[in-house]
Amino acid sequence: MDEEQQIKQKVNEQFSKNAEKYVTSDSHAKGGDLSLLVEWLQPEPHWIALDIATGGGHVAKTLSPHVAHVFSTDLTKQMLANTARHLNQSCKNIWYVLADAESLPFLDHTFDIVTCRIAPHHFPNPRKFVSEVERVLKPHGKFLLIDNVVPDKPELAEFMNTLEKLRDESHVRCLSVKEWKDLFNLSNLIEIKSLIRKKTFQFPGWVERTAGSREQIDRVKQYICDASEEIHQYFSVVIENEEIQSLQVDEWMVLSERP
After folding, report:
1. For residue 22, what are the contacts with CB-CB under 8 A and spacing of at least 6?
2. Where in this chain does the record put each Methyltransferase type domain (predicted)?
3. Fewest CB atoms less than 10 Å from the CB: which of 17, 126, 206, 227?
């Protein structure tokens, strides 16, 4: 098994165990970015949408009333099945498909909209992912990406990715905004608008969602506590009574178009 296959197996294991947590997670289910999705995309009733790495299905659910069909895909069967159980009663135009984000099982020029939210940091080959998005989009189709991004400063970027890997073994790497823009350029996707914001994680729920043991949680806590004052300030780490309460990361939302 090569490295990419090993990564995807780890993703499968992690999300199979935690499928229900991603449906109910506040940062996934109630993010302010969801309210901007429809405003930015301006979907039309006859459009067909693809949501890649759908997780708890929050984007698919948001788009469902505004388009003809949503194809909701995920690498993890248990995650997809759990999401379908939650959405089947209220959303009749969502279709659930097992799919690898880096090798999509769809024909060229199939979709008017492609979305992917809070997932690409689990992908071993983001370049393949962006290339596949471009391939399945219709001419003038829209791609909306939302994911955590690292700062440009190497020390801050290393801290964020190391922290995420300690918390979640299926984490691969958060890219910087510049890296994402370079990948868009390679696939000839034209940026229309973007927004970067600070996203707050309430530490106990955030770390417990993916950590498999008390020892793992303690390692994450220690890594944060040992970090420099500059890191604590950048990520707005809040510690009260020697307990970590919250921290913030950068999240980038970008809308692009296939020419």
Report:
1. 15, 28, 55, 56, 79, 209
2. 50-144
3. 17
Amino acid letter, residue 116: C
Q: Name which of 18, 31, 19 is nearest 251 in CA terms.
A: 31
The pLDDT value given to residue 3: 77
Residue 218: band (very low, low, confident or very high) from pLDDT cuts 50, 70, 90: very high
Residues paired with residue 31 on neighbouring β-strands, in sequence order: none
- Can you give the pLDDT at residue 229? 98
| Residue 189 falls inside a structural domain | yes
Q: Is residue 211 part of a domain?
A: no
**How far apart (Å, rounded) are the C-alpha atoms in residues 37 and 35?**
6
**DSSP-derived secondary structure letter, 64:** G
pLDDT in tens, 117-151: 999 999 999 999 999 999 999 999 999 999 999 99
- Give the CATH number for residue 123: 3.40.50.150
When computed from its CA atoms, the radius of gyration of the chain, rounded to whole angstroms, is 18
For residue 92, give the DSSP letter. T
Residue-wise pLDDT tens digits, 75-90: 999 999 999 999 998 9
Beta bridge partners of 95: 71
Pair type for strands 111-117 and 48-52 = parallel
How many C-beta neighbours within 10 Å does residue 140 have? Answer: 9
Q: Which domain holds residue 124?
A: 3-152+170-198+251-257
Give the β-pairing of 94-98 and 190-202. unpaired
Instruction: Give the ranges where 58-153 is alpha helix by DSSP (H).
Output: 58-63, 77-87, 126-136
Separation CA 132–CA 177 (nearest Å)? 19
d(CA 129, CA 24) in angstroms, rounded, equals 26
